[in-house]
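Whether sequence alone determines local backbone shape is best considered at the level of individual chains. When preparing material for the folding task, we compiled for one chain both its residues and its backbone structure tokens. No coordinates are needed to read the tokens, only the vocabulary itself. For completeness, the protein is quoted in full, as a sequence line and a line of structure tokens:
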Amino acid sequence: MRTVTTRAELEAALAAHERPRALVPTMGALHAGHAALISTARRHAATVVVSLFVNPLQFGSATDLARYPRTLDADARLAEASGADVLFAPAVEEMYPPTEVIPTINPGPLAVRLEGASRPGHFAGVATVVSRLFDLVHPDLALFGEKDAQQVRVVEWLAAQRSDQIRIMRVATVRDRDGLALSSRNQRLSQHGRQSAARTIPVALSLVAEAYASGVRSVGTLRALAERVIASEPSVELDYLDFANGDSLAPLPDSKELHDTGADPILVSLAAVVDSVRLIDAITIP
């Protein structure tokens, strides 16, 4: 694997590799979830590029940006072991040169609710940096984890606006043995917080899936089942538990009977705060 930090180095590295080319965008602090993205890319492309860039446009405060973990050496080892050919780890000035005007991309209605409501401007930052990476890497395929469900929809929307026909591949959420979705944020949880999160967040979503599979179709009933699980742990503060059309992300009211939605998938997403750490998770039903 070759590690590059400039656009010129990236261009030279890409010229030495064949297509099809897959891109796995990351902000570093890589874990087994990222490894799954990279290994999946390896099975679908001749060349796998992993980007490692802590994007300042995605952060609401300088403090959050500064404390985001930066573990380049460990990330490089994981990326190479998982099958990456090129690791692109640029500085901010390389991604957003002060001499260039980089237009901000507004994803519109997809970015307004859920994480967008809690983190204003976040998805404009995501869309802008991903568009920038697409322009630099020119991938045929880009891979994203399903845990960040709203982000995936924003990226799918972005790809649909472009003329280069980049295919977006969703990769299933990777979970730890206790069921908690893998995330770099998990490192900040105390032992008690970790246990509380694992006993509630994935359990609540699994209960929704199981109830739906058993024939429960009322959004209100499914919501009540999940909220009861979250409420059982006082240390877990629920931000939202949302039922939405999986394509438009339009919310579904509690009065909705899910069999009325036809073939559209239903996105069930959840955000909660544990130990002052905000965790998100999501599933799609059916």
